[in-house]
Structure formats: C-alpha cells, structure tokens
Amino acid sequence: MNSAPATTGADRLDSSPMSDLDEHVDAVLRRTFSNHEELLAVRRLSGGASQETYRIDFQTSDGPRRVAMRRAAGGIERADVTGRPGLAVEAKLFRVAREAGVPSPEIYAVLDETDGLGPGFLMAWLEGETVGSKILRAKELEEIRPRLAHECGVILAKLHAIDPVATGLAQDLKTVSTESFVREMWERYQSYGSAMPMIDYTARWLLDNLPPESTAKLVHNDFRNGNLMVTPQGVTAVLDWELAHLGDPIRDLGWICTNSWRFGNREMPVGGFGRLEDLLDGYESVSGTRVAEEHVHFWEVFGSFWWAVACLEMAEAYRHGPDKTVERPGIARRSSECQVDCANLIIPGPVELVEASSPPTSADMPRVDELLESVRDFLRNDARQALEGRNAFLSLVASNSLDIVLRELTLTPAHLAAEEARLKELLDSDASLESLRQALALGLRDGSIALDRPGLSGHLRATVVNQLAIDQPKYSGLAAALKAGRP
After folding, report:
1. Is 68 helix (H, G, I), strand (E, B) or coil?
2. How far apart are CA 343 and CA 349, in angstroms?
3. pTM of the entire structure?
4. Chain segment 72-100, per-residue pLDDT in tens
5. Domain ranges in the chain?
6. Which residue from 95, 241, 374, 431 lies 20 to 30 Å from 82 (Cα-Cα)?
7. Which among 458, 434, 448 has a CA at the least distance from the CA of 196?
8. Is-contact 390 55, C-beta < 8 A?
9. pLDDT score of 293
10. d(CA 247, CA 361)
11. Does pLDDT of 14 surpass 50?
C-alpha cells in the first residue's frame, strides 16, 4: 500500500511454475473473488520488520486487479509479551474504524489455517504516500501538509469515540493502564539483560509523573507519520493496527509528536509536518475536549522510552526469531536515538563529544577500515544498483550497518573510557565498566539511586549522546543535544 512500492522477488512469469506462496495466494483469491481468473504477480514490499506486506496483481473477468496482503513475518505469528491482538483482530479493527469514519482500506478476507500462509488478511490496495520523509517533502503534498495536523486530530477524535463494548473490541483487546504500560515496557527491557541506565532513568521519571487515569478508550498505539497514507486530498488510510489496545487515548497524540517520527524536522512537532496547536484544535473540534499540552508531553516522553525498548526487541528477534533479516540489528541500534530524545525532553543540558582515534589494525595492508569501506561501498553502489525492491533496500541497510562499525572503531575507545571514568566517580567504585553500568541500572530500578543524584544527569546525557554519534550521527536529536546549553 504505497504510491511507489519497492518490491522484491521475481514476478511469476507465464512460463515458470508457481511457487508455494503463489499457489496459496491463488487459492485465497479464488475463494474470495468469484471473477478471479489468473494470478499475475506476488511482490513483497520493502520494510516490514515485524509483519510482511505484499502487493498482489491478478486477472479477473472484468480486467486486471490489485490487492494487498498483510501477514505475520515468515507466516508465523509470534507470541508477544505486549499482548498484541493478532492479525485477525487487526482486520476487525480496520473494519470497525472504517465504519466509524476513520480512513481505512476495505478488508476482503481473513486468512485461516487451511490457506497455508499463516495469519493475515487481504485488503484493498490504496494509492498514496506512506513514506514519512516523502510526506514532508513531496511537492504534490505541498498544499495539504499545513492542514494534516488538524486532520490527524479530527481522525484521532473519531477513533477514540469508537465504543469498545458495542463493537466487541473490549473482548479482543487488552486494557492497559498508564502505570502498567510503563512497568510492562520497563520489565520487558530488563528481561533482555541489558544495562542501559537512561532507559531505567526514564522509566522512573514516567512513574513519578503519571497523568490522572481516565476511562479506557480504543488506542491505535502506532498512529504516526509513516503509518498514514497521504494524498493531495489528505489522509486516505490509517495503517498498522497491530499494537492496538484500550487505555489512555492521549498516547496516540503523544506518539505522533515523538521525535523519531518527525523525520528530521524538529520545528514541527506533529509528524514533522504540523503544529501541536493544530492537532489539539482538530481533536477538540470533534471530541469537545481540549487536551492539556502537559498530558501530550508525558506521552511524548513515553513514546521515546517505548521505542527505545522496542528497538532492542529487534535484536532479540534477530537472535531468536524466524526472520533473520539484516534490517533487525540495524533497527536495534536506533535505541540510542530514542534515549537521546528522552534526555533532551527530561534532562537537557550541555554535552561534549569525544575525539575520534585511528582504528586498530595490523601492519599489513589494507587496513581494517579500508576492508569495511570496500564492502560498504560495494553494497551501497554496485549491489544496490543491480538489485530490485526489498533486496536493494536491504543492501542499503547493510551498508549503513557497516558505517556504524566504522564509527565504532574510531569513537568507541574514547567513549567507553570516558563513560568508565564518570561511573567510577559517580558510584565511588573501581569495578569494571560492565559492572558499573549494571550497578547504576540496578540502583535506578530499586530506587537506591535518586534521580537528582549529583552528576547523574550529566553522565547519562554524555553517555547516550556519544553512543548516538556512533549509531546515527545524522539523527536530529544529536544536533539538539549538542545545541542545548549553548548561547
């Protein structure tokens, strides 16, 4: 469901036999559309780290037709501690939202076990732009962009007005209080065995600043630039309901303002394209309720906290899941982006970057950095040009991962040495770096280390900012962090 979908896999030629996937898709089309005649192509779209989306072209007695298929990654729906509703319920959410006036594609069929494709559904193919950065820059969207924030507020008000009981969604979706949501994500992060004190600090801040609980309503939970399909006429579809639950609806307003989804435009807090005032005006015009900016701010902090943990989940999925795509480790490294956003939101202040050093190497040529650069350039230029669709996209992802490795070679020694020195002073200990990190994380978790402990906020900012300089130096949060505290 993209205006210019990048695809992967060879189209099925008339002279070639059907793959197993083709055969299963063809069977679903035959039972769904009475005028179906022939399957023409099944193409997986780029992206889709947690679920897969396909573009399906087929011939009917009335002419060619196109639909989209969404299914679990690898055809296997993984049990998830966050209580995701599953693809059958996601299809129901699309239908309910469409009836409530929320822009949504029509659902044609829900897959079952006999289809051989795993959980999923077929839906209408809609034309429009879904790539967040393009929505900010596309010339054809120039006129609608200033009105998108208000329109998003209107859509969210309609979405939150859906009655979970009358629609049966109360039986399908998990009800999540704000406090339990914070604790659930905090515990999930801890289960990975990681010691990233900025995440622990943010969890403590969130628990200390909980907004008043209200009646639980339908929450999309991933309403953001990148999950909206936009045309010159406005938003034509709200996509990806896989994280929906019942809870505080302001979560959706805070999430679309989270810096990760502004695509570099920090000046426009709503998706990088609009003002917060316009979002709140649109919401109030339908709901009759004026949402407090402080309430949105809380969920904006939570959004960066949530995404920091969700990024780490990609590393776990890569190590233990069925879909070992090169995309997952790359996304996992984006956790530092979100941690810097948390720091910018709740502990702003000055920070300095460490100096780069020469990468370690042997006396032989070529050096290790030259070897990495040669592979990176091959993937980014030669391989990417020779590939199509998803494989071309993944070659770019792989080359970006090598950029991270190159920066790590030159920046990590000084970064880790500085982190260790700060921790030894902060905790008054000569333990190893890993032990010191763990001690700080555990102290924040059990409350023995206060959030206002002298030196703590400065240490956290310096640590996450310098890690981000390794992981993604072009991320807008880094420039904002470096600018903070300067005249």
Report:
1. strand
2. 9
3. 0.88
4. 877 777 655 446 788 999 999 999 999 99
5. 1-127, 129-313, 321-483
6. 95
7. 434
8. no
9. 97
10. 53
11. no
